[in-house]
Amino acid sequence: MQNNLRIIKGLHYHDLSLLKKDVSGYVSKNCNIKKASKVAVKINLVGPFHPQKAATTHPGVVRLLVEALLPLGCDIVLCEDISDENVLEVTGIKEIMDEYNLKFYNLRDYGYETVVVEGMEYTYSSLIKSCDIVISVPKYKNHMLTDFTGAIKNMYGCISRKQRKELHKFIDADDFANIICSIYSIRIPDLIIMDAIVCMEGMGPSLGEPRYLGYLVLSTDGVFADYYMCNLVGYETETLQVLQSAFQSEMAKSKIDELELIGGGFQDKEESFNRVPVYKGKYRKKYMDMLKRTYKVDESLCVRCGLCVDACPFHAITLRKVPEFDRDKCALCTCCMELCPTNAINYKK
Is Ligase found in the keyword set (predicted)? Predict the structure, then answer.
């Protein structure tokens, strides 16, 4: 099967309204969406971050896809797993819901079912599995643990929060990349619309800095969408464990030399992008130990809600005047940062 990777460059979010016809044509050509079909639109809402932070899928990209789907007469299932409805307000998604009279489907409210992949059980979203079409709308970002996050990692949010918390205990092993890929394989999206207009460089997935790149990546294959973006920003793709695991598992729908690239090329480079260092073995451990020493809590922002304590898979946080970290137990999984409602947990620059 040949896969189309459509690259649109030089964009700003205010330009997206001009792409409605283009994106509508791409969706219609590559997805067999029938009237009354259930179409899951899986976005990335890692936490209560404003769009300009570049930690979540920008509402402008969501609006573009919604406007492409509405004329098709399908049932749009706008979904993600979130901790509370405030996330919708802060990220700008609530405005889209109100504008188009859309319901938001919080995955945790619709149950999970057990799926076994390579001998391991996953509690996977029943809602996602029930949909006729799945369109993933990720944000491209750096990630301190997995090096990058994009189309493959976006589907990690389809398992239960409890299991996501437990699986973070694999972060020091290559197994975590295999786990991420196994979850992606349960329901491989039919289409990817990746927000790479403003990405996050530096200490992603939530502590980095916004970086304008101007790309919108449309693909029938999430593995190749990730491959394109990682290559674009200057990563050596053969060193990225998630990508290598995906290719070795043959999750990509075709081979690299069979890829049809429309509107761009692998010669495109954004090498000044501030990538995270990619280390393995003892060097990775030293790097992680260094990062742990940079954690801090902004006392002026902390509201002592205790969400970070509950989120930590390693029981490394104690709530006193402000949260205190046990650096020996901490594995830098970033769960506490992603769930903090006031962005009080950060690192010293």
Answer: no
